[in-house]
């Protein structure tokens, strides 16, 4: 029996209606930018397996560091204990984070990093005797699949069974450079009528909304509004973090810095799951008290797992290396040239880019998980390129180590698709 056949017996895959999509592809190995399936077919991983393995799959530098760590300390409770991988990671991360960040809290995945951010914001007010019960978030944002993060996500097409249990969330449009005055008016009405605890947002690029990009200046105006109203700002950089937008973090490109930042995905270079929620000293100070109940009673069993910390440390070292910085520049420049070539194609409705993130919308209307979208996905896979269209949006977010030849193949395959669809 093939792996594909054996898979069907016991496995239940995420985000999948198994009756409509019974087929999976069994991957047996990966290296650099390539995934290899059980038949030996090679695919270029042009979305870095959901933006995680930005330094390439099975990167030797990271593997060596992780295996050394595995031999000395594998796991220890992080409540009451500490260890050097976590300490060193906090030191290195603080060096590259926006300057106002000073404390690091660990969890396991992107959703929990947002969950932690929301709980910190709610308790920040609670500890000061203020009960605030409303959050603000962007329309079409995506923040994860646990209850808090689902509640703030605007993209909730398939969340019907859970909506009655969501937190109170008010939605605002993203700033497009022209509408921030209208948004500010809307915000004034919201804060007059609700006790707002926090604002959760994906800075500059909304990943799951199909790499939708918004104005940094417009966002800055909104962040200033929140600051003056004592509303905690929570930047979800789970997707945008670690170099993808051309800076270490998307928040580096916005004047007003968030109070809280959520990190995961590329944090551990794609090797193991882990997440971090960072915050300012001012947030932390509100939890620091003689009163035990003012502490932050949230914790996951594998918090700050030493192996995951060592993967993150090795990843951050690579990110800061000259080679990786050159790679990021090389990919961004090459996207610009590709864009010049195709932006006026009759099938292309619009294009956008930030750093190594590139997206184009096709003129064809497609449902997010519809038939035409599936045909487009199959078209790419049959040609050895793993791209995962979001409705009629094709986006590239390849590992920084993608070669020029591999990138050329990704572009050529997209151009073929423009002629076919
Ligand atoms: C992927 C993602 C999440 C959720 O992360 P998981 O690890 O899948 O739980 C949250 N926010 C953003 C912006 C993401 O891209």
UniProtKB/TrEMBL annotation:
Please report a single Pfam family linked to this protein. Aminotran_3
Q: Alphabetically list the UniProt keywords.
A: Aminotransferase, Biotin biosynthesis, Cytoplasm, Pyridoxal phosphate, S-adenosyl-L-methionine, Transferase
Where on this chain does substrate bind? Answer: 50, 265, 299, 388
Q: What is its EC number?
A: 2.6.1.62
For the site Participates in the substrate recognition with KAPA and in a stacking interaction with the adenine ring of SAM, which positions are given? 15
Q: Which InterPro entries match?
A: Aminotrans_3, BioA, PyrdxlP-dep_Trfase, PyrdxlP-dep_Trfase_major, PyrdxlP-dep_Trfase_small
- Tell me the route in metabolism or biology where this protein functions: Cofactor biosynthesis; biotin biosynthesis; 7,8-diaminononanoate from 8-amino-7-oxononanoate (SAM route): step 1/1
Q: Which reaction does it catalyse?
A: (8S)-8-amino-7-oxononanoate + S-adenosyl-L-methionine = S-adenosyl-4-methylsulfanyl-2-oxobutanoate + (7R,8S)-7,8-diammoniononanoate
Enzyme category, top tier: transferase
According to the UniProt record, list the residues that bear N6-(pyridoxal phosphate)lysine: 265
Q: GO MF annotations for this entry?
A: adenosylmethionine-8-amino-7-oxononanoate transaminase activity
Q: Which cofactor does it need?
A: pyridoxal 5'-phosphate
Answer yes or no on keyword Iron: no
Query: Residues that bind pyridoxal 5'-phosphate, according to the entry?
Result: 110-111, 236, 300-301
Q: Where in the cell is it found?
A: Cytoplasm
Subunit structure, per the record? Answer: Homodimer.
Family matches, as PANTHER family = ADENOSYLMETHIONINE-8-AMINO-7-OXONONANOATE AMINOTRANSFERASE
Which family does this protein fall into? Answer: Belongs to the class-III pyridoxal-phosphate-dependent aminotransferase family. BioA subfamily.
Q: What does this protein do?
A: Catalyzes the transfer of the alpha-amino group from S-adenosyl-L-methionine (SAM) to 7-keto-8-aminopelargonic acid (KAPA) to form 7,8-diaminopelargonic acid (DAPA). It is the only aminotransferase known to utilize SAM as an amino donor.
Record protein name field: Adenosylmethionine-8-amino-7-oxononanoate aminotransferase
Q: Which organism is it from?
A: Geojedonia litorea
